[in-house]
Amino acid sequence: MTSGVDELFDASGLGAPPPPQRGGSLAANTHSSAPLAVRMRPRTLDELVGQAQLREPGSPLRQLIEGDQSMSLLLWGPPGTGKTTIASILSQQTDRHFVEVSAVSAGVKEVRAAIDAARSDLVRTGRETVLFVDEVHRFTKAQQDALLPGVENRWVTLVAATTENPFFSVISPLLSRSLLLRLESLTDDDVRSVLNQALADDRGLAGGYEIDQDALDHLVRLAGGDARRSLTYLESAAGAAKTKGLATIDLPTAETAVDRAAVRYDRQGDQHYDVISAFIKSVRGSDADAALHYLARMIEAGEDPRFIARRLVILASEDIGLADPTALTTAVAAAQAVQLIGMPEARLNLAQATIALAVAPKSNAVILAIDAASADVRAGKIGTVPPHLRDAHYAGSKKLGHGKSYAYSHDEPYGIAEQQYAPDVVLDATYYRPTELGAEAQVKQRWERIRRMIRGDGPR
């Protein structure tokens, strides 16, 4: 009895699976019932899609794989960017034995056993071992400590993969003994290339199916820069097409297969700019519901969450400012969470920041202030710095009058000294004009009092 996956790929014209590749479990899992993402895993560094910075001649990864040099690696990047693939390539293209340890289930005992076996093999046969640890951030400190002797003495070539910032999740001794390689999310063109190759390659669908452009675009958008996810979606879509008796994967079939309606959204086109514009204007307009709608559209379409977070950070100062001084802190925290946690969980952080900024009191006094100051500077209003404010710390400066008559603010009542700060040319300029909205109302009262005290314009 054959599985549905077997039937699918028999019907698509696949021949016998290629013989297992040298190296280990990752390389050998190429039988016809294996997931499409596994069968299509690149076999050489040149087949790896994206990560051009890692594939350059003379790069550390090239040296490790082609030069057969011993070097432990920490691979840091989002899911589906090639971390496991690099370990697989390393196992296939070198004469090293390949051992995989699960960070989810292995303990200190298993880690030490793997290193002891590698050391014994090295002494007995001279053959080195690649120890692959996926999701190394899940290891406890004790488990990571257990890796150190093997790495330090080069009994193993460690290849550890993580989706989380290793500076927070990996112990310093292991970081210092390994080369950190950063992997970037794949571009839409990268993912499209992966899908097209899977459609044609004998290890994949072997030309058994065509795909309409809008269906392909839909799968690319949903993948969000994750090659593994894109191949999983393609496999599901091919299965749905087979069920319907279709030789072409159309958009309705792709939508059914992944249970996601196509969101008309081109990250390089009008929808990208229109939706982010509507999102920002909804937050500025204090409509949290509308803002959440546009946020959801961007997330579901696979928009880069870092782009959304950056726009929220800008908005926090441009449209809220000191009306709610916590807005910028909230936006920056959301941006950091996106970087640290990643999607899909980070959508919660983006949603929280969106709601907080939408309901916050609004003020554009900050952007008006810096724009007005910049306009004066561009217009040539750049006077000399008043002598009493100039640097008076170097020899001879006091003879030039630098710092003379400077009033130290902390020695004055209320910590505010009456003296000239601005150059003469902009002495009467008023840039910051706070509103009476939210917390900025109190800022306005304080700033008006301070301004009068500095300039000696009235009662304190």
List keywords for this structure.
Rossmann fold, 4 domains, alpha/beta, 460 residues, Zinc Finger, Delta Prime, domain 3, two-stranded parallel ribbon, 5-stranded parallel sheet, 50% helix, 21 helices, disordered N terminus
Shape: globular
Tell me the structural class.
Answer: alpha/beta
Give helix and strand order, one letter per element, not per position: HHHHHEHEHEHEHHEHEHHEHHHHHHHH
Gyration radius over CA: 30 Å
Strand order of the largest sheet: 2-3-4-1-5
**Count of distinct structural domains:** 4
Count all strands and give the number.
7
CATH classification class of the largest domain: Alpha Beta
Please state the second-level CATH architecture of the largest domain. Answer: 3-Layer(aba) Sandwich
Provide an overview of this structure.
It is a single chain. The protein is of the alpha/beta class. It has four domains: 51-182, Rossmann fold, CATH 3.40.50; 188-258, Helicase, Ruva Protein, domain 3; 270-359, Zinc Finger, Delta Prime, domain 3 (Up-down Bundle), CATH 1.20.272.10; 373-455, DNA polymerase III clamp loader subunits, C-terminal domain (post-AAA+ oligomerization domain-like, Orthogonal Bundle). The chain contains 21 helices and seven strands. The chain has helices spanning 4-11, 25-28, 36-39, 52-55, 60-66, 83-93, 108-125, 141-152, 166-169, 172-176, 188-200, 213-223, 227-244, 251-258, 270-284, 288-300, 305-320, 326-341, 346-359, 365-378, 440-455; strands at residues 73-76, 97-102, 129-134, 157-162, 179-182, 210-211, 248-249. A five-stranded parallel beta sheet has the order 2-3-4-1-5, with helices on both faces. A two-stranded parallel ribbon has the order 6-7.
